[in-house]
Amino acid sequence: MRRAALIALFVICHSLFVVAPIHAQERGPTPATPEQIRAAIDKLADLDYATRMAAGRTLRRAPSAQVAPALLQAVSDHADGFVRFKALILLTGFNDPRIVDAMEAAMVSPNDRLREVAYAYFEQNPRPALAARMLAALDKEEGEFVRPALVRALAAMPKDPKVTEVLIRDAGRGLDFFRSTVIEAIGDYKIAAAIPRLNEIAKIDGPLQDDAATALGKIGDKGALATLAAMQQSAPKETQPAIAAAICLLGTNCSAHIGYLEKTLTFADTYPGYQDLLRGAAAGLGHIARQGNEDALRILFDVGIPSQDPVRAPVTLAIGLVALRNTPLLLKTLQARPDQAGAIGMVAEAFDMLEEDLEEERFFVYVRQAYWAAADGSPTRKLCEQLINKLDF
């Protein structure tokens, strides 16, 4: 699919502009007329993959002074709700002071996608002054993908007692899906006040037990070792990878626990029927890698590149989340791999699986900045160029 799309895009560009080969595309900001910018915005929702990807490229590479006002207008006025959504995401790649106002307006939009983007933006750019509005929104927000983004935006706030109280409350009530997102956010943002609630959840067999164990590991309080050690004795085998990852995250016997997770992955590859263990081991290595552990990410690539499903999918997903949440580690790892093409292919597969549009846009921005910061002809620039081409941005 991607190869066909790239070929189609090349044919279109070559026939219109007779440009150099597609691999030599990064030339800095590319001026565009107002008509070209409007046309590109209109094509952001085109059903044809090559067309909408080409539209995104045009807008990303246009000078901010030209494209940011057009994107702001599209977010506000465009008739197509999906175009408004994509325009708001693309806007985050430009350093325009008006973006904050656009995001605040999107928080109350009837369009679920716009609200999701707004909260995801404020997770990355916390604004304590919005805490009261977000807490009020949490009482009525029911969007399946909006509510988790809102929870994470709240968790990212500098420690606010009211916010912490609500998150601890919601970790213990409601649907398991929403509770899981609260527990994950508590762990990611190291909300230590939630440890007693996490300890309670960790003692109960069920789908949230591994979430609670992982969150305890992420928070990093060594006092959680007692809870995790007890879980090792009593929790079902499907939860053991999450416990091992959590103990590693606490800094205890990390190499041994990473070794266990690696063996679990290879065991599940050899003996079908252990999907729960497989998913747990891949996710556990992913959590460890996201905290900066190079060995964990190396193992995911070592196992994943030659694999087929059912192993490949959970490993690919874990790699994708590392790419989004620890991009510097991903680039460092990719640059060192002898099988770089296969590793980049797994990142591309992961982005096809994920629906993290704003985080993917942040990844694109980071990679393009790294491209321009690197010396011409350097390994880093060559790697970034490969990512730009493979991921179609």
Short description:
This protein has 23 helices and no strands.
Describe this structure in words.
- The protein has 393 residues and is mainly alpha-helical.
- Among the domains are: 82 residues, Leucine-rich Repeat Variant, CATH 1.25.10; 141 residues.
- The chain has 23 helices and no strands.
- Helix 9 runs parallel beside helix 11, helix 16 runs parallel beside helix 18 and helix 18 runs antiparallel to helix 19.
- The longest helix is centred in the middle third of the chain and has 17 residues.
- The two termini are 15 Å apart.
Indicate the topology.
Elements: H1 2-17, H2 34-42, H3 49-61, H4 64-77, H5 81-91, H6 99-106, H7 112-124, H8 131-138, H9 146-155, H10 161-171, H11 176-188, H12 195-202, H13 209-219, H14 225-234, H15 240-249, H16 254-270, H17 275-290, H18 294-304, H19 312-325, H20 327-336, H21 340-353, H22 357-373, H23 379-390
